[in-house]
Amino acid sequence: MAGYKLADVHPSVTLSGIGVTSAVDIAVNYLAISRSTREKLSDKGFLYLHYAKDKKIINDFV
Predict the structure, then answer these.
(1) Could you give phi then psi for residue 32, rounded to 5 degrees?
(2) What proportions of the chain, in percent to the nearest 5, are helix, strand and coil?
């Protein structure tokens, strides 16, 4: 699609491209936040609580 003007592209192609881009952006941000949370809990020695919450062993902590 390089070299095409955005106005020359069919609107459904443009909207699907926006949808795919948004989904990828959300997934990347989710993974970054998850990793950041694990790193913070690991530094403080509470990573086991995070995993216990994921496995539904405990309801909530913090």
Answers:
(1) -65, -40
(2) 75, 0, 25
Instruction: Identify the H or E element spanning 53.
Output: helix 47-54
Whose tokens are 């403080």? That residue is 44
Name residue 60's amino acid. Answer: D
Give the whole-angstrom CA distance, residue 13 versus residue 32: 29
In one letter, which amino acid is 48? Y
pTM > 0.85: yes or no: no
CB-CB contact of 49 with 41 (8 Å): yes
pLDDT digits (tens, 9 = 90+) for 4-61: 565 666 777 778 888 899 999 999 999 998 888 778 777 777 788 878 887 888 887 5
C-beta neighbour count of 50 within 10 angstroms? 16
